[in-house]
C-alpha cells in the first residue's frame, strides 16, 4: 500500500495539473468556440468610373434678349419661336478602363396618343478609347414639318409632342487583362410645346456610375499559429484530461481520508492493538466481516479481546480482526483499486 505522504504528494500534483488543464481548456475553448473557423474577405477585382453627359446649345434667331445662341440652363426659358437649331453633344467617359464598341444616337418624335416615329439615327464605332463622343444637330423647322406631315397623313391637327434623344452604347471595356461588357443607354426628352411657345428639356443630363466586380475568398482563421478546429480539439482534450485528473485526485483524497481513519483508530486503541502475521484458518473457524473499525473496537471491549492487525506481505490490504474461540471478526481497509 502506498504511504500516506506519497498519496498526499500525488494528490496535490494531480489537483494542480487538473486545475491548470481545465483553466487552459476554458480559455482556449472560449477563444475557439466563439469564433468561426474561417473568415471571408472581399476583394475588388476592378472598379471603373463611368460618366455619361449631354450638353445642349440652342441657335436662335438674333434677338435683343438672348442674342444668337443659348446654352441650356434649367432656369432660363427657351422660346420655340426663336429656336433655329438644337445642338446636342454627348460624351461618355470611362476612368480606369479603355472601351471599344458602337454608339447609336436615335431621335424619335412621340405623339401624345402614344405612337412614335424615328426622325434621325446616327451610328459610330470607337476603339480602345476612354472617351466616346456623339453629336446631333437638329433643324427645328424641319423637325416641326416632319411631325406636321405625320399628323396630317393621319388627319390630325398639329399638337405639342416630345422629341426623345436616345443614346445607346455597347462597350467592351478592357481593364488590364480583363474584358467587361457594358451595354448602356441614356435618354433625354425635348418637349415641344407649340401651345405655350416653349421647348422644355426633361430627364437627367448627366449620369454617373461605378462598374466593379468583387470576389470573396475564404481564409482559415489562425490564433497563435493554430487554426480554430485544432484549438477546439485541443480544448476538448485538455478538458477531458483535466476532468480525469480531477476525478483521480478526488479518489486519492478519499484514500487519504482512509489513511486518516486508520491512523486515528490505531492511535485511539493502541492499548489493545497487537500486530500479527497470520489469521486463524480452518474448517471449524467462522469468519464474520464487520462494517467498520469502530464496530470492531466495541466488540473487542465487549469480549475483552485484543484487536489483531494483519498486513499481508503483498501489501494488498490491511485486516483488523478479533479472535473469539472459533469465531473471527474481521474488518478490511485500504484496498487498492
Description of the structure:
- The chain has 337 residues and is an alpha+beta fold.
- It has 3 domains: 1-37 and 221-267; 44-218, Sandwich (Immunoglobulin-like), CATH 2.60.40; 269-337, no CATH class.
- Helix content is 28%, strand content 48%.
- It contains 4 helices and 17 strands.
- The strands form 4 sheets. Strands 1, 2, 3, 6 and 10 form a 5-stranded antiparallel sheet that branches. The protein has a 5-stranded antiparallel sheet with strand order 5-4-7-8-9, covered by helices on one side.
- Strand 4 (98-110) and strand 5 form a beta hairpin.
- Helix 1 (4-33) runs antiparallel to helix 3 (228-268).
- The radius of gyration is 52 Å and the shape is rod-shaped.
- The termini are close together.
- The model has no long low-confidence stretch (mean pLDDT 88).
